[in-house]
Amino acid sequence: MINEPSLKQPDISELTELDKRHYIHPTTIPKLHAENGPKLTFKEGNGIFVKDIHGDEYIDGLSMLWNVNLGHGNKELASVAKEQMEKLAFSSSFAGYSNEPAVRLAEKIAAMAPGDLNSVFFTSGGSESNDTAFKLARFYWNLKGQPEKKKIIALKQSYHGVTIAAQTATAIPAFHSFSGSGISEVFHAVPHLTKCEEGDKKDPNYKNSIRALVEREGAETIAAVIVEPVQGSGGVHMPPEGYLQAVRKLCDEFNILFLADEVICGFGRTGKMFGVDNWGVVPDLMSVAKGVSSGYSQLGGVLIKDEIRDTIVQYEDVLAHGFTYSGHPTACAVALKNIEILERDQVVANVKNMESELKAGFKYLEDKHPTFTKSRALGLLSGFELYADRDEMVPFDQSILPATEVVEECFNRKLILRPLVSNVGRNIVAIAPPLIINKQEVELMINIIDESISAFERKHL
Ligand SMILES: Cc1ncc(COP(=O)(O)O)c(C=O)c1O
């Protein structure tokens, strides 16, 4: 709980009016926002709790955007940022300039990453990482004398970000209709068709598989396949056992790069340091962001395997890609401390323990609530679904948005979660609390979800 006295109250109505007038919010309904102002204006946080400007305290059940992995108000991260800012807040990484925190972080991440992912290209976030990965993949094939290998295969239900290439790979329709354009040569396969990816052509879904797309387009035109180890914003979908291994094999068979988007999964979220570690798979390129700094600094990166790195370093011209904030010293110093704490405090082991607590809570909810089903958790990446008739998988009437309603009930009881869309509508609730959560706090979340589903069921059953 937050014990420290709040700072002087801001003028709340003034802040609301200024927000409505001047601040265009991402992934928010503009008309509603301009009329009503912010849903909540955050002010401070401690551990899994955040307070708003009214002094109301909420549980942050999604680590904000699946990223505040060490929780709020971490003084060690704040101190290291201050120290680094006082010494050297920013320096360029262009034209061969360097700085110690970026070098140390690159070395540290290489030591933690699976296989021979031993080099890093730094970015400021997940979308930039995925755009960078696509460009590096194409650049690599160019250097290998195969410039026609340009196409990218992503999965339906995937979320890879909003910069124009990452957005094209994202398979959530609203993000495509927003600006009506994308890059060409990106294709989407149905996720998790393990048998098809292993080569079973008799499967009725075969034509929707990655393998079928590769055969249709020609492997000689395909640069990379991008996969989230566990799909996040598309619905918290777990891959079936063997799926990632099958995609890895397929990529090897057809000489295609396997790009893992670890933006949510990376740095402990799934109970292993990286999502792919759950299946012993080593990608060729790996995008990271979010958990690398627990959101205390804006940082992302693409991890690069040795063979790609060794090819790139033969290039004698300028590598014409980079962001002003690539290798930002303050961001990297914060990330180094974040990783030090993750390891020192055995946070990933806590994630595994809390996964069990969460699953016990899900079992209780499933036994009690007839609408609750399909709960899943890998580490602290979890969710459940709501159906009118769960045995027959009958969704609620279209006029009812069950996940949105339950999330709103939770919000009214001071727990922040997120509704997600499945193929039957808005019926998935995502839960991904900070990785430092304890047993009592998991129970507190489950109690609130319990009460919230009860309120929803009283209305609709
Ligand atoms: C799997 C995945 N990839 C990429 C991104 C984009 O990251 P960012 O919002 O930092 O650009 C996200 C963001 O939620 C994500 O979940």
Summarize the structure.
This protein is of the alpha/beta class. The chain has two domains: 12-73 and 347-460, Alpha-Beta Complex (Aspartate Aminotransferase, domain 1), CATH 3.90.1150; 76-344, 3-Layer(aba) Sandwich (Aspartate Aminotransferase, domain 2), CATH 3.40.640. The chain has helices at 12-22, 30-36, 63-66, 75-88, 100-112, 126-143, 164-169, 173-179, 194-197, 210-217, 243-254, 306-312, 329-344, 347-368, 402-412, 439-460; strands spanning 42-46, 49-52, 57-60, 117-123, 151-155, 186-189, 222-227, 257-261, 285-288, 300-305, 372-378, 381-386, 415-416, 418-422, 425-431.
Total domain count? 2
Silhouette = globular
Portion in strands: 15-25%
Largest sheet: 7 strands, mixed
CATH fold topology of the largest domain: Aspartate Aminotransferase, domain 2
Q: Bound compounds, please?
A: pyridoxal-5'-phosphate
Structural class by helix and strand composition: alpha/beta
Question: What is the count of helical runs?
Answer: 16
CATH architecture classification name of the largest domain = 3-Layer(aba) Sandwich
What's the arrangement of strands in the largest beta sheet?
4-10-9-8-7-5-6
CATH class of the largest domain: Alpha Beta
Q: Uncertain segments of ≥5 residues (pLDDT<50)?
A: none
Task: Write down how many β-strands occur, each being a DSSP E stretch of 2 or more residues.
Answer: 15
Classified in CATH, the superfamily of the largest domain is: Type I PLP-dependent aspartate aminotransferase-like (Major domain)
How far apart are the first and last residues' alpha carbons, in Å?
Answer: 36 Å
As an assembly, this protein is single chain
How much helix, percentage-wise, in residues? Answer: 25-40%
